C-alpha cells in the first residue's frame, strides 16, 4: 500500500467555460456580449493542481470519459505532471461542464453533469492508497460516505471537506449533520455557512458549525477568511487585488490552507496562505489560470 502522498483529492473534473468583461449578468431575451472568454479545467482539478504547484505530494482520483471535454482536462493534468495512477478511464462520455458568466466579484452559472460511475475513482483509490489527508471538494453526504470513512479512519487520514453544496442543504437535515460531524476540517464560503446554519450573521454561522466540526474555515472573498478550532478564533484579511475572475478561487484557497496546515503552521497563518493562493488565482480566468507557487507566498507574507 502506498503512503507516498500528503493529500488524496477525490472528485470530478469540470470543464469551465468562463465569460468575463461583462457589463451585466445574462437576462432572458437579452444578449450580453463578453469581452473575453476562456476554456479551462475546473472542479477538483483546481485544488489538485494548486497543491501540486505548491510542492505538496498530491494524488487526484478522477474519472474521465471518451468525450472531448474529458480529454481536454486530461491533457492539462498530464501537462501539469500530476500522478496518473489514480485516473480511471471510461468508454463513454463523462461530461462535467460549467458555464460561468463572471463579474469581478460575482458569477452566474449554468451546468451539466453526465451520470457518474457507480464506483467512482475516489472509492477505488481509498482501497489501495494511504495519504495524510483526504480532500473532498464538496459537501458530500451520500451513501458512500460511511464506507469511505471506515477506510479513511483505518489509515489515520485527516478528512477535509469543502462546503460547496446543493441549495437545499441544511445543518438541520440528519444526513448533512452527520457528514459535517464526520470530517476534521470543513471549508464553506460565507454564503454556504449562513445557508447551512440558517444564520444571517457570519460569525454566528461559524460558531454553529464549530459545534459540529473540530475545525471550520469560512471563506468570505474580499472580506477575508475566518476559522475556529479548539476554542481558538482566527482571521486573516484578503489580498488587496482587483479580481479578473473569481471562478475556482475557493478551491485555490483550500489548497493554500492545506499546504500550510500540512507544515504545521498556526491557524491564522494557514488562513493567510489560503488568501494568497485564492487571491492571486483571481488575477486570471479559472482557478489555475494564474500559477501560484511558494515564492508567491513568501513574497506576500512577512
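^ Assign residues to that structure.
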Amino acid at each position: 500500500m502506498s503512503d507516498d502522498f500528503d493529500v488524496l483529492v477525490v472528485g470530478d473534473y469540470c470543464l469551465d467555460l468562463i465569460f468575463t468583461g461583462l457589463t451585466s449578468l445574462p437576462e432572458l431575451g437579452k444578449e450580453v456580449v463578453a469581452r473575453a472568454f476562456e476554456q479551462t479545467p475546473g472542479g477538483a482539478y483546481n485544488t489538485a493542481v494548486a497543491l501540486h504547484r505548491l510542492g505538496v505530494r498530491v494524488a487526484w482520483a478522477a474519472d474521465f470519459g471518451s468525450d472531448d471535454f474529458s480529454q481536454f482536462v486530461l491533457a492539462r493534468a498530464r501537462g501539469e505532471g500530476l500522478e496518473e495512477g489514480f485516473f480511471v478511464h471510461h468508454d463513454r462520455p463523462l461530461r462535467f461542464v460549467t458555464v460561468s458568466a463572471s463579474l469581478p466579484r460575482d458569477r452566474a452559472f449554468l451546468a451539466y453533469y453526465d451520470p457518474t460511475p457507480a464506483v467512482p475513482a475516489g472509492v477505488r483509490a481509498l482501497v489501495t492508497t494511504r495519504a495524510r489527508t483526504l480532500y473532498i471538494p464538496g459537501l458530500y453526504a451520500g451513501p458512500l460516505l460511511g464506507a469511505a470513512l471506515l477506510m479513511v479512519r483505518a489509515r489515520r487520514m485527516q478528512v477535509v471537506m469543502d462546503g460547496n453544496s446543493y441549495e437545499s442543504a441544511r445543518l438541520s437535515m440528519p444526513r448533512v449533520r452527520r457528514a459535517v460531524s464526520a470530517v476534521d476540517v470543513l471549508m464553506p464560503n460565507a454564503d454556504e455557512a449562513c445557508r447551512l446554519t440558517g444564520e444571517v450573521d457570519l460569525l454566528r454561522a461559524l460558531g454553529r458549525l464549530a459545534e459540529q466540526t473540530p475545525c471550520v474555515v469560512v471563506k468570505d472573498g474580499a472580506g477575508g477568511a475566518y476559522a475556529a478550532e479548539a476554542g481558538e478564533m482566527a482571521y486573516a484579511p484578503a489580498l488587496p487585488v482587483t479580481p479578473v475572475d473569481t471562478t475556482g478561487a475557493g478551491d485555490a484557497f483550500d489548497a493554500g490552507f492545506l499546504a500550510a496546515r500540512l507544515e504545521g503552521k498556526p491557524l491564522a497563518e494557514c488562513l493567510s496562505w489560503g488568501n494568497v493562493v485564492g487571491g492571486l488565482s483571481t488575477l486570471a480566468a479559472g482557478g489555475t489560470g494564474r500559477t501560484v507557487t511558494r515564492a508567491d507566498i513568501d513574497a506576500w507574507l512577512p
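DSSP finds ten helices and 13 strands in the chain.
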